[in-house]
Write a structure and sequence with these properties.
Order of helices and strands: HHEHEEEEHEEEHEHEHHHHH
Largest sheet: 6 strands, mixed, barrel
Distance between the termini: 30 Å
Structural class: alpha+beta
Shape: elongated
Number of helices: 11
Length: 404
């Protein structure tokens, strides 16, 4: 082991002694590696921004049913057990999922007809800190509805439903408490997120069925409830296609934003292929250039290397001599390329900051990308030094004697 460290020491001293040539190799590597890092940083930044926009908008994860269906509770249980499903919730008929909300404390009093959206734990439309309604008298109103009703968190509303039952018009009222106001992007229209129990109660009331919990009279409810639709969200944008196909196999007519997702994925694949083709050609060219230089350098130092053999260096130590110098070039060239990349990255991100969303970057690399870059660079250096090392292994100690 001490012999190997001695070889490292001698190779480094020789590398620093011929600093002009070493610097040329370092600059040549950095001139190839830095643009590759910038190119990949742009590719990763642009695609990441597009993917982030897709991920941040939960509507891209939604799979919607077309028309009305007939879904029992066991169907929803099966869907919840799927690993690619993030959230699923039954929906009643659209015409039954409406309610008039009154804010009688406003001056003048405000009234808005809203859509009722069933919600629960894990609802991607509501932020993590937004409470979920769990009782019949709790709601989370959309931003637009809150503005029209002039209501805020903790406010009280009067929910009103009307129907024609037994030949008479009837109207019921339900006091509601506003738990929260949803983010503007959660629901763009006038809406209210409610518990599934409240949504079911409104449908039962309109269909003439009794709701004992609220004292609403009517006929006896059905023994087994079925739902006409669902709210369904995939766990990620990469699960949308498989989940949609699974629903189609069940005979359901569904819609999603798979076309937009596939466009981003296709762009990512095309840019990745383009980058690796350019990077491969560049690194092969540099490896050939470095390999030829190492070969010539070994020939130029045949006398010095033979003297090392003469004083007791083993063949392995002589082989490591050009290999180590190639690795020095790889490490220093990578470090210089990183410095150049960081400067270019900051300049590009500042230049295009106004056209990007808050926190977004046009050009960026993750820590693992730097590790991949140094790994590829070291691999290319080892490949380039292979022939030089083989050339050095054939140098005989007698060559040093003849020169003395």
């Amino acid at each position: 082991m001490s012999g190997f460290f001695h070889t490292i020491q001698l190779a480094l001293r020789d590398y620093l002694h011929e600093w002009q040539m070493s610097l040329c190799f370092i600059l040549a590597l950095a001139a190839i590696l830095a643009p590759m890092m910038v190119l990949f940083g742009l590719k990763f930044g642009v695609v990441s921004n597009m993917v982030d926009r897709l991920v941040q908008d939960p509507r891209n994860l939604e799979i919607r049913t077309v028309g009305s269906g007939n879904f029992r509770s066991d169907w929803f249980e099966d869907m919840r057990r799927r690993p690619d499903v993030a959230f699923v919730m039954p929906r009643t008929r659209t015409i039954a999922a409406t309610m008039e909300l009154y804010n009688r404390k406003a001056r003048p009093a405000k009234i808005v007809s809203v859509e009722l959206i069933p919600t629960g734990n894990g609802d991607p439309l509501l932020g993590r800190g937004t409470p979920r309604p769990s009782r019949l008298n709790e709601v989370v109103v959309s931003k637009r509805a809150a503005e029209k009703l002039q209501i805020g968190v903790g406010g009280e509303l009067d929910g009103s439903l009307a129907r024609v039952y037994a030949g008479r018009q009837e109207r019921v009222h339900l006091p509601l408490k506003v738990l929260a106001v949803a983010e503007p992007g959660a629901f763009p229209r006038e809406g209210a997120f409610v518990s599934l129990d409240l949504l079911v109660a409104t449908e039962d009331f309109r269909d003439g069925r009794a709701v004992p919990e609220l004292g609403w009279r009517g006929s006896s409810p059905d023994s087994e409830r079925t739902f006409s639709g669902f709210r369904l969200y995939a766990r990620s944008i990469y699960d949308v296609n498989a989940l949609q196909n699974a629903l189609v196999k069940q005979g359901l007519d569904v819609r999603s934003r798979q076309a937009e997702i596939e466009l981003v994925q296709k762009l990512d694949r095309n840019l990745t292929v383009t980058f690796w083709v350019v990077a491969l050609v560049a690194m092969i060219g540099f490896s050939l250039s470095l390999g030829a230089s190492i070969w010539a350098n070994v020939d130029r130092k045949r006398r010095e290397l033979s003297v090392l053999r003469l004083v007791g260096f083993y063949t392995a130590g002589i082989v490591w001599f050009p290999v180590l110098q190639a690795l020095f070039t790889a490490v220093f060239g990578w470090m210089l390329a990183v410095l150049i990349y960081v400067g270019v990255e900051q300049g590009l991100n500042r230049l295009f900051a106004e056209g990007l969303e808050a926190g977004a970057k046009l050009c960026r690399l993750l820590p693992q990308h730097y590790g991949i870059a140094i790994g590829i660079t070291l691999g290319a250096a080892l490949l380039a030094s292979f022939l030089g090392g083989m050339r050095a292994s054939r140098i005989e100690p007698a060559e040093g004697l003849r020169e003395l």
